[in-house]
């Protein structure tokens, strides 16, 4: 399908949808200067995720894991790109009911999106696993790394979901609420390989909904009604223009 016709069709689907929900992954943030964790130069190419990305590893040697985490919290300085901004306009206009994101970078919120389910947590907060005290990111920024709890001196853990952790109950509940009755899923920047988020497109499709995919490397070609093998910002901007946003 020619790009112009695909944009027109996708815009028509978005206008006619009763409830559109978005699912986003690392690919929507690469244009904001955040490398995809799984890319050649990404975090997992330099830090074995099973050695640095599990709760078990953190509990065994938190100082070692913070060699990786000190790079991770740097993404808090990133700014949203045009795609994030367009998606926020979709929500403002009522076209998009909410976003389920696998990202921990808070860029959707920075762009102005309000209904955002952080499926894998975020770096906005940290927790002491010993005494339960919570800290905000700006507090951690003022601490020497690795940050230590001011109450019990234990090393703080960011409120992100490690590989051997369960998805937070609240995130699962919020996801259920968003997906209930969704007839269109806008999938952007995710390879749909990480369970259980990877099951969301199939669930919408099997429930009779349609899928629009935006991925430089398509992951849902056999499932999506429309697939854009293109950048996030350029495609979202084109859709916004087609919708007169």
UniProtKB/TrEMBL annotation:
CDD domains per record: SIR2-fam
Superkingdom of the source species: Bacteria
Catalytic residues (UniProt): 120
Alphabetic keyword roster: Metal-binding, NAD, Transferase, Zinc
Entry keyword annotation includes NAD: yes
Residues involved in Zn(2+) binding: 128, 131, 149, 152
Alphabetized InterPro entries for the sequence: DHS-like_NAD/FAD-binding_dom, NAD-dep_sirtuin_deacylases, Sirtuin, Sirtuin_cat_small_dom_sf, Ssirtuin_cat_dom
Pfam families: SIR2
GO molecular function, one term: histone deacetylase activity, NAD-dependent
Location of the Deacetylase sirtuin-type domain: 1-245
EC number(s) on file: 2.3.1.286
PANTHER family reported for this sequence: NAD-DEPENDENT PROTEIN DEACYLASE, NAD-DEPENDENT PROTEIN DEACYLASE SIRTUIN-5, MITOCHONDRIAL-RELATED
Protein name: protein acetyllysine N-acetyltransferase
Biological classification of the source: Bacteria, Pseudomonadati, Thermodesulfobacteriota, Desulfobulbia, Desulfobulbales
């Amino acid at each position: 399908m020619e790009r112009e016709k695909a944009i027109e069709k996708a815009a028509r689907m978005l206008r006619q949808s009763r409830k559109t929900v978005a699912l986003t992954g690392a690919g929507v943030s690469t244009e904001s200067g955040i490398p995809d964790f799984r890319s050649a130069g990404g975090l997992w190419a330099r830090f074995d995720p099973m050695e640095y990305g599990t709760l078990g590893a953190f509990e065994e040697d938190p100082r070692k894991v913070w060699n990786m985490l000190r790079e991770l919290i740097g993404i808090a300085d990133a700014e949203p790109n045009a795609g994030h901004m367009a998606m926020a306009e979709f929500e403002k206009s009522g076209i998009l009911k909410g976003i389920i994101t696998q990202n921990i970078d808070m860029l959707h919120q920075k762009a102005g999106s309000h209904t955002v389910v952080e499926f894998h947590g975020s770096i906005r907060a940290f927790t002491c696993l010993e005494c339960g005290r919570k800290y905000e990111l700006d507090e951690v920024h003022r601490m020497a790394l690795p940050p230590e709890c001011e109450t019990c001196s234990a090393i703080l853990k960011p409120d992100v979901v490690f590989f051997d952790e369960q998805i937070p109950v609240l995130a699962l509940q919020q996801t259920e609420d968003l997906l209930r009755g969704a007839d269109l899923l806008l999938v952007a920047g995710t390879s749909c390989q990480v369970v259980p988020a990877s099951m969301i497109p199939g669930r919408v499709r099997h429930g009779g909904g349609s899928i629009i995919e935006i991925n430089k490397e398509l992951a849902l070609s056999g499932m999506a009604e429309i697939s854009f093998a293109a950048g996030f910002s350029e495609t979202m901007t084109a859709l916004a223009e087609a919708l007169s946003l």
